[in-house]
Amino acid sequence: MNFASRIDKVPPYLFVGISRKIAEKREQGIDVISFGIGDPDIPTPDNVIEKLRETALDGPNHRYPETDGLPEFRQAVADWYQRR
Description:
Layout: H1 14-27, H2 46-57, H3 71-83
């Protein structure tokens, strides 16, 4: 497959390199505390999964969002920037 030449200018994904270095250190027996991207190593709490399920089954959530965004969200963002 041929890729556009501009793809060569895209740097490698940072966390792939970090993961490799962590693996190398662990293979050397070094205990590494990873402050990486935060992949969870514990299950999502049942109440969170249940709320996601309920929300996914709620019919009004099946529509496309407003083109300009929800007015309530836009106002909240504007208020936040005003307080900064």
